[in-house]
Amino acid sequence: MTDTSHTLAEHFSEQDVRYMQRALQLAAHARDAENEVPVGAVLVLGEDILGLGWNRNITLHDATAHAEIMALRAAGERMANYRIPGATLYVTLEPCAMCAMALVHARIGRVVYGAADPKTGAAGSVFDTLISERHNHRVEVQGGLLADESAVMLRDFFRARR
Fold first, then answer.
1. pTM more than 0.90
2. Distance separating alpha carbons of residues 113 and 99, to the nearest angstrom
3. d(CA 139, CA 161)
4. DSSP character at residue 14
5. Is 100 helix (H, G, I), strand (E, B) or coil?
6. Which residues are catalytic?
7. Cβ(138)–Cβ(145) under 8 Å?
8. What is the pLDDT of residues 65-87, one digit of tens each?
9. Using one digit for the tens of pLDDT, what is the confidence trace for 94-111?
10. Helices then strands, each counted (H, E), the chain
11. How far apart are CA 103 and CA 127, in angstroms?
12. If DSSP codes are grouped into helix, strand and coil, which group holds residue 122?
């Protein structure tokens, strides 16, 4: 385990750390290969990776092409179903309201995110979309896994663009 994951060992499993590290690799790919905001996502059911995603808004000219949505689309195609109950999504940045609602509609069981998003986060920072009692499905949320790595990647990306 890395130093950051070691401090969170009581809250996250080694599997959680491994999948978040993969999400960080996808975020770096978004940044390096497509000059996109570095956010990566891995959708897992049991031990099977069902979908991978990274931000592709600019590349695809699509406001909905967030990492979470791309992972959901890949998993939906693979499973031939838009609902994936019990799956866990690992994402490097707290989901926005759009992504959070997509996760609710997909019946995702759990979301593990890295860095909090104090401007648009919908997993507790600004909105509580994933756990709202107004929905017929609630998603378990755990934040802060490898948060420093995620935050540094995002901060460095935006600094370089200024």
1. yes
2. 12
3. 34
4. H
5. helix
6. 68
7. no
8. 999 999 999 999 999 999 999 99
9. 999 999 999 999 999 999
10. 6, 5
11. 14
12. coil
Comparing C-alpha atoms, which of 81, 71, 142, 146 is closest to residue 109?
Answer: 142
- pLDDT, one tens digit per residue, over 9-50 is 558 999 999 999 999 999 999 999 999 999 999 999 999 999
CA–CA distance, 118 with 19 (Å, rounded to integer) = 23
Please, which residues bridge with residue 141 across strands?
111
Q: Which DSSP string corresponds to 124-156?
A: TTS--GGG-TTSS---EEEE-TTHHHHHHHHHH
Q: What is the pLDDT of residue 162?
A: 80
Q: Which of helix, strand or coil describes residue 86?
A: coil
CA distances from 3 to 9, 125, 148 (A): 10, 25, 11
Token pair of 87 as six digits: 């799956």
Rounded Cα distance, 96 and 118, in Å: 10
